[in-house]
Amino acid sequence: MIKNISNFELLDNTSLIFMTYKNVIMVTVFLITAVNSAFTQFYGLSNYYTVRHTIGDSYLDDVSFLNPSSYPSSYNMINVGVKPGRFGMSELNSLHAFAVISIDSTWSLGLNISGIGGELYNEFSPEIGIRWNVNENINIGASGEFNRVTVKNYNSYNIPTFNLGGIVKLTNELNAGMYIRNLLRNYSGDIDKTVYQEGSFGLSYSADEDLTINADAVVVINSFNSFNVGIKYDFDENFTSRLAVSTNPGVVNLGVLCKVSDAFSFVLSMDYDITLGITPEIALIYRI
Fold first, then answer.
1. Intra-chain end-to-end CA distance of the chain, in Å
2. How remote is the C-alpha of 180 from its chain's centroid?
């Protein structure tokens, strides 16, 4: 027997499929949020380097966005980058803009603005930091961040965090660093009272003038632990490559920096997440 289907039934079924599709996207976004980085409460999905390091010496721009004590003291810089369709999802387009002003050899100020998302989900996170060069061997930094997350048809929520970091020069070749993010243990009372706080300790070793290696242990309370390794190699003064690996989430990062002039450089980078796939990135760096 053939069952007749009315236009209203077709409309209801189509609406149900559309709503289910939207819900799948929403669930996927939150899954990515939980798996990638240290959960959105800290610094968001749009953080520049997926495989993050405490000191940043193995980064292509030598600066750790997560540790304000790594801000440069001898130059000013602007770094603007985009990750189109992170993990192949148009709803996860991300953009960052990072600037550092070196006041003098003792003090530097930094501003990092990042955002990600689209109509269903979006996140905006400005952060202001300061670095103090205590002496030639010790740097201390602090920053404040305001993270706003908006989900369509749900309440938006805001989380302010305070972050602290330091770097110590042990020898001419070896540096040690640490940072704590969300030092005051803030949380979103509207959604979840679980406190997510990240601590990281890392070492940076300069094997020679061209090769730098970073190794870091990362602990996120109530979330996950990770061990990260990064290697940066300068082929010449105009071309640098970087390879980094994170154990949790399982991510491999490969990138290159090309110096166009004394002031301008551009970065091409790719993240490969063993669960979520590939994310490309392009960034422009300007040094003054």
1. 78
2. 15
Nearest partner of 63 among 99, 13, 88, judged by Cα: 99
Q: What is the DSSP string of 116-167?
A: EE-SSEEEEEEEEEEEEEEETTEEEEEEEEEEEEEETTS--EEEEEEEEEEE
What is the torsional sign of CA 158, 96, 46, 130?
A: negative
- Of 4, 133, 137, 10, whose CA–CA distance to 68 is shortest? 133
Q: Give the residue ranges of the chain where pLDDT is below 50.
A: 1-20, 22-46
- Nearest Cα to Cα of residue 45 among 284, 283, 276: 276
**Residue whose C-alpha is closest to residue 117's, from 86, 158, 154, 160:** 86
Nearest to 251 by CA among 86, 85, 81, 60: 86
Measure the CA–CA gap between 284 and 158, rounded to whole angstroms. Answer: 29
Q: How far apart are CA 237 and CA 261, in angstroms?
A: 10
Total-model pTM: 0.80
CA distance linking residue 142 with residue 42, whole number of Å: 14
CA distance 128 to 98: 10
* HSE-CB for 22 with a 13 A CA cutoff: 13
Residue 37: closest CA among 200, 203, 207, 211: 200
The C-alpha angle with vertex 245 and arms to 54 and 177, in degrees rounded to 5, equals: 15
And the tokens for 165? 């970091």
Helix (H) or strand (E) run with residue 8 in it: helix 7-35
Domains of the chain: 7-287 (2.40.160.60)
Cα 286 from chain centroid (whole Å): 19
Integer Cα distance of 73 and 107 in angstroms: 7
Query: Quick one: pLDDT at residue 85?
Result: 74
CA dist., res. 256 & res. 240, Å (int): 6
